[in-house]
Amino acid sequence: MTDSLILVQPGPEHEAAILDYIAEHKAAGEHKLNGGLGDFVDYASWLDRCQREHAGLWRDPEWDVPSGVFLALRECDNRLIGLMRLRLGDSPKVLDFDGHIGSGIRPSERRKGYASQLLALGIAACGRAGMTRVLVTCDHDNAASEALLRKAGGRFEDTRMEPDGNLIHRFWFEV
Length: 175
Ligand SMILES: CC(C)(COP(=O)(O)OP(=O)(O)OC[C@H]1O[C@@H](n2cnc3c(N)ncnc32)[C@H](O)[C@@H]1OP(=O)(O)O)[C@@H](O)C(=O)NCCC(=O)NCCS
Fold this sequence. Notes:
The protein is α+β, with helices and mostly antiparallel strands. The chain has helices spanning 15-27, 43-54, 92-98, 114-128, 143-151; strands at residues 5-8, 67-74, 80-87, 101-105, 133-139, 155-161, 167-174. The radius of gyration is 15 Å and the shape is globular.
């Protein structure tokens, strides 16, 4: 059985865990990190932005909706298993390409059911924010993510092309 995950907002106490999480991805040859670390430069500025975003003091103009990054910690040992960004609103960029939930699982903890659990937690959080349906998307060539979304019961709607030509597959979930 997959151990339980809990969602927490990033704090100063998570610096070592985040740096280790990033290092593990780099060591695995993964340089594009999903779930809220895409533009990470240093911990202090990343944390500051996360905290202002959670407090509603700052919005990323890319989406222009209330949004926030959460750490998925394994409850039994506090290990950082994954990251998730929730986008709690409908802007053109959210609805066409990025969806309401973005997430990633650290390489050493994949294929254990954590992404499925994290997706369920994210959909529930969207529900608590008043949403009745949730969009989750993936790149056309991300077979793992597409398989995850289909297995979780996502309803495929269509494929849309980003301005740079990248194709995005869009899946809807009822809350
Ligand atoms: C995609 C990702 C989140 C899946 O995380 P995970 O914890 O391994 O997923 P789960 O263990 O919950 O897998 C659920 C199902 O998804 C499918 N799946 C997951 N990884 C897969 C893979 N590498 N190949 C094929 N199917 C896969 C399987 O159907 C799996 O069920 P099964 O293990 O019973 O066969 C993870 O590979 C990841 O973080 N990738 C990099 C970031 C990313 O792509 N994020 C998503 C962006 S939209």
